[in-house]
Amino acid sequence: MKIDLTQLVTESRNQASAEIDNLSTLDMLTVINQEDQKVPLAVQSQLPQIAQAVDTITQAFSEGGRLIYMGAGTSGRLGILDASECPPTYGSNPDLVVGLIAGGHQAILKAVENAEDNSELGKSDLASLNLSSKDMVVGIAASGRTPYVIGGMQYAQHIGAKTVSIACNPGCPMEEHAHIVITPVVGPEVVTGSSRMKAGTAQKLILNMLTTGAMIKSGKVFGNLMVDVEATNAKLIQRQTNIVVEATGATVEQAEQALNACGRHCKTAILMLLANIDAQQAKQRLEQHNGFIRHALQD
After folding, report:
1. Per the count of CB atoms within 10 A, which of 123, 174, 261, 268 is most buried?
2. pTM of the model
């Protein structure tokens, strides 16, 4: 089936880079950099919709639902990247934020032929996760027309799950299957059709906002400190200590003592020191307040 790409903003030619192959290396990079500077402004125009998505994701989390990203190629890889960073950063369950890519795990490193054109694959991938109405599905595609993503979004709506469209072409087919539409129009790419560039950057910025915003609103950040960080390597063990020191004003020795007393759980150690209570009391109080340190301190 022939696909008409002529009407897509992401497929149009960029006049600013029309002669880029004739430029010096520095001038070439200057053009790329100047085009990249347009991306945050395109994302800024979508902040109200992104905020709506963050609030909906937070609500889904509070009701036992999950955030599921769906995409093909670069878009799918960005979803998987964002999902994979949540557990070490926020101590979240690996099943809370899930990334799906057309073609499965092998497509993370290498393109899988025709996978993105299979709408039924999108449906079956979600079905295999036992998608429920509590979950939220975020479709990611620069073009906004990827059949794999649309198939998944259609299935999600049929199940009763909330859906979000993240695309870079206004009026794209994905919008018809989304409860929330996020469309940062970044304009033509420096290399025509290479949507891993500006479109990919816009998608990355938005995904960062979705999970970061939802985790903050779920009590996993105190001030600007990642108080649910897991100590999975030497760097993160040291980061835990630094976080407790920053949050409480305690000495390194006091921070380490509190962390060791509670099984190296930052949030518990912070509450222990700020409220002058023991590990068990801090743990119980956090459970009573759904993990929010500020609420627990007001108890």
Report:
1. 268
2. 0.92
